[in-house]
Amino acid sequence: MEMLVKLNQLLGLRGKGAQPLEGHAKHAHKREHLIRRSALSSVIGRVVASVCMLIQVPLALHYLGAEAFGFWVTITGVMMLLAFADLGLGNGLQNRVAELYGTDDLAAIRQAWICGIKLLAIIGLMVFLLSVLVVPAVNWSRLFHLKDAKTAASASTCMLVVSFNFCIGLSLMSAQKVALGMQLGWILNLCVAAGSILSLIAVCLAIQLKFGLAWFLAFTLLTPQLANLFLVWWMIKLTKSVALPVSAPTKSRALLKVGAQFFIPQLGAALMYVFPPILLA
After folding, report:
1. pLDDT tens per residue across span 151-184
2. Contact yes or no for 232/191 (Cβ under 8 A)
3. Rounded CA separation 230/234 (Å)
4. pLDDT above 50: residue 246
């Protein structure tokens, strides 16, 4: 390697558009540094999330009661897992960003990101509109075997709240995929840890304010989205763009095509994890 570098320096033999060997070494060092940082932040994020969960679960159980708590955990868990069934657009966006990041093409990354945001927003809007039509027609208290009158009365409202949160999360999730595609998993891990802390704070505040189940659910679900909004701002700043460009329809179709390759595996995984909580409920 050193002989080749010296030979290039002496003869000036660098191919047109080729990256210097020193550049390759710097890129490899940067990549290793990001991997180590992501690994460390992942451990920190998991520890923070676990600690917050260990604190908030008994608090919520004591406040809501066994049946309302079980309903809260079931519907939030189901909708969080369904977030993976996004027609594969999330993984498709991550794959495209990773490809473009290798060429340091920030303009193309921004273009791919706005395509992903638009498509995910459309999917989220369609899901929410569908839920507005379907949720009131379903007897949720019977489906989840709810016996408490207050819990049963607020079941439909809770399902709409969860659906609304799910639809918002679809668009915000695009920033997570961009971060992963740009090898910035450490930023995502820190935001996930922040979301866990915000969730714990929301549970404590909801208990202090004596919220009912529907408001308790809305407060504890939507508050952690602030961490995702911060991640969106952070990624916009990193990609040096405040006003994202308008995407071409052809680029949107290309992203859908890539995302379709991930849809079936994601859907299968989501169904595998979704049905057990429903059956247990």
Report:
1. 999 999 999 998 888 888 888 888 888 888 888 8
2. no
3. 6
4. no
In whole angstroms, give the CA distance from residue 43 to residue 73: 24
Answer for the pair 154, 140: CB distance below 8 angstroms, yes or no: no
Q: How far apart are CA 113 and CA 119, in angstroms?
A: 10
Q: Which conformational region is residue 245 in: left (phi greater than 0), alpha (psi within -120 to 50 degrees), or beta?
A: beta
Whole-model pTM? 0.74
* Per-residue pLDDT reduced to its tens digit, 135-154: 999 998 888 888 888 899 99
Whether the CB-CB separation of 165 and 225 falls below 8 Å is answered with: yes
CA angle, corner 108, sides to 125 and 112, nearest 5?
20
Tokens of 210: 């004596």
Say how far apart CA 112 and CA 252 lie, in whole Å.
Answer: 8
